[in-house]
Amino acid sequence: MRRRRGGVGLLGVAAVAGVAHHAGTKSAQAQAQEQAQNQEIADLQAQQAAAPPAYAPPAAPAAPAAAPATDLTSQIEQLAALHTAGVLSDEEFAAGKAKLLGG
């Protein structure tokens, strides 16, 4: 009688090789998918860094109030100079000043 060897045999080796091949293929696919996702994330981050912000707060308005105040001051000074020179009476000076001040 022949005695059988105690190894795995040809079919066992083929089964182990098949499982190993399948596991290696799945691992490679998962790694490739992860690399693709990482590249996508890097691309999106680069686009966001290059793009201007979607919302920009409105710029502060220039100080237009300062110009009229200076103009108002100079107009009142002119009225005062005319009043001092005697060109305007007290009533005319008061009326002109009230008109300039909006009252």
Structure description:
By secondary structure, the chain is an all-alpha fold. It has two domains: 8-53; 66-100. Helices cover 71% and strands 0% of the residues. It has helices at 9-50, 66-85, 90-100. Helix 2 runs antiparallel to helix 3 (90-100). The mean pLDDT is 78.
**Structural class, please?**
mainly alpha
Topology as H/E string?
HHH
Mean pLDDT across the residues is 78
Shape, principal axes of CA atoms: rod-shaped
Count of all domains: 2
Radius of gyration: 45 Å
* Oligomerization category of the chains in this entry: single chain
Q: Specify the helix fraction band.
A: over 70%
User: Beta-sheet strand percentage?
Assistant: under 5%
Tally of individual helices: 3
Q: Compute the separation of the termini in Å.
A: 130 Å
Low-confidence stretches: none
Number of strands: 0
Largest sheet, in brief, is: none
List the helices and strands and how they pair.
Blueprint (H helix, E strand, L loop, with lengths): L8 H42 L15 H20 L4 H11 L3
Helix pairs in contact: 2-3
